[in-house]
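Format notes (please read before filing issues)

Several people have asked whether sequences and structure tokens are stored in separate files. They are not. Every record keeps both together, in the order shown below: the sequence lines, then the token lines. Line labels are part of the format and must not be stripped during preprocessing.
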Amino acid sequence: MPDLSRRRFLRISAASVLAAGLAGRATSAFAGWSEGSAAAKGGVRTVPTFCDICFWKCGAIAHVRDGKLWKIEGNPEDPLSRGRLCPRGTGGVGAHSDPDRLRTPLIRVSERGQDKWKSVTWEEALEYLASRMAKIKADYGPESMALFSHGIGGTFLRHLMKAYGTPNIAAPSFAQCRGPRDVGFRLTFGDDIGSPERTDIANTECLVLIGSHLGENMHNTQVQEFAEAVGRGATIIVADPRFSVAASKAKHYLPIKPGTDLALLLAWMQVIVTEKLYDADYVAKYGFGFDAFAASLTGYTPEWAFTETGIDPETIRTTAREMAKHRPATLVHPGRHTNWYGDDTQRSRAVALLNALLGSWGRKGGFYQPSSMDVPAYPCPDYPKPARPKLDNPGKRYPFAHEGLTTGIREATITGKPYPIKGWMVYATNLISALPNEAETIRAIQALDLLVVVDVAPSEIAGWADVVLPESVYLERYDELNPELFRDPFIALRQPVVDAPDDQKPNWWIAKRLAEKLGLDTYFPWSNIESYLDTRLKGAGYSLAELKRRGIVRGPRQPLYFEDGASAEFETPSRKIEFYSTQLEKAGFDPVPRYTPPEGGPAGSFRLLFGRAPMHTFGRTQTNRLLSDLMDENAVWLNATAALRLGLKTGDYVRLKNQDGAVSERVQVKATQRIRPDCVYLVHGFGHTAKGLRRAYRKGASDSGLITRYKTDPLMGGTGMNVNFVTLEPVEGA
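Then the structure lines:
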């Protein structure tokens, strides 16, 4: 598959950006945002920045009153937040004031896992770390260090590790989250969905959600647009084993059997093709291999799908016709966390193919064509060429993985093959809960000579580290610029609002100082972060002073749809939308998705499902007092009939025990008819076992601790995690 770089960059003057940003406004929302004028009005200072509570990176305005962080609101000029923040974003104040934050660098003084440390100065910590990294480089080569990183904050550490000489860099967001979706759409359209996704919910007339929990998974722009779509009467179709918040807004709710989503997708496509409801002109103009694709659908009738999914055949036909009625303004949402059952790339490819039948790619109400603004890189020396290749995917075992595989690095750390990994640097990701099978992660850690964790809180992974470096939170630091690829091109700045309360440091400072001690200072030639940012911005015709004042500069919108002049290019071998994939065929895989029934669990068990809550991000926010007050522990959703059979009721405490004997902390039951009787559901991120997380310690149940099994996607190496089953054991005396 070709390497893709399809961003459409803009080079426009600062004057045209200002004109575009203020056109049609009598007054600017930025009026009075200078520190002096704000201070004159009661001691309130406002600072534009962008949020880091999740990856959406919404533009925000932080308010400081009498020198203390007061509140955070959405930036009205930002196209991501549109002047509004989700509960997590407004709760960002609690990230700054979190009493459980890491406060000083730590070096281990015990065996790993015993949580015995000594506080040291930054000089001591960085000297110690540099000496250990230098030894690994001398003994094993620089490739034997690996970086696990999450989010824009890891940019400078990724730069450091490439300068050090390692190619082994990965983020859980690929193999444990969005990777199957991205690969499935690449195989079909030759392009990614993006992050934020290029979904045109703002104009859709029919929105189809398959296990995608908008309203619980708070992707701000999408949730705002979803609410507006409901308000204007758009048709909502939801297929989900659980009656989610999104399902409560649906015209059609399909309580699908877990693991059978691909069967439903194939049946929908069979109806649309056999009844000739697809966009024939679009398919003829842009499609490749349609006849072979159509022939492969013959047996996937709604009657066949009923036996797999439990969805009535007429409901399947009715919803398929509803989608076709609104095409091309029908959007079958690609989802975000798509690692479910191990066949996830093919399921995501089926989602892409259904959208292709409806003609929604590149069309209003479907998927728009995003654009971005060009900001030149800071001039630095070329990275050294590693002597050995990446080891996360040896021999291209997973031929369509275009990003690093975290579990591949973990496997190589355990086996020492194809060469040993002896050091991990972990930034802003709790690998104990982010990767499936905690025991495998701990086994890999025990094989390391060095584990360094850079984070804001004493998470479970920090408890295993040799060195812990406390990072300042996003409200206390600069980060890399964000020239977002989106509907409206813009550049956003994250800047300090208040000082860090203790001895925390920003990631850019950590990377630069460590580089100096490793003799890599030529890769960080700038004197300070302001100089770095200003140099980049000036290269694009802007200035740091302008961005500090406004928080964002915007460019004129480019064509969004094929009809308006957006480029209809497809980076596939055929240069068309591939209904039949010769790439997959040549690699020995099904060129059109084919359904395989999911494996069942032990008798009397329930399939374990998990998801998000609107006030929490993964397991990162449970010690944030403003957010934990909204939800301080999770509950296990259990079908009310199943609960009655087990003698359980809402509020009872149970422990979950999985098929391998793993047992959770105690958790309350939520007995409800809003979930099928063959599965249970947990909000992810609870049941913390790190003692330093005092507010979240052992509250609720950890889904991660129960995910001892996973099924690897053969196309791209993602880990399907909805393959675990649990029973419920009452907690005596609770």
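For reference, the curators noted about this record: The longest strand covers residues 44-50. The longest helix spans residues 122-140.
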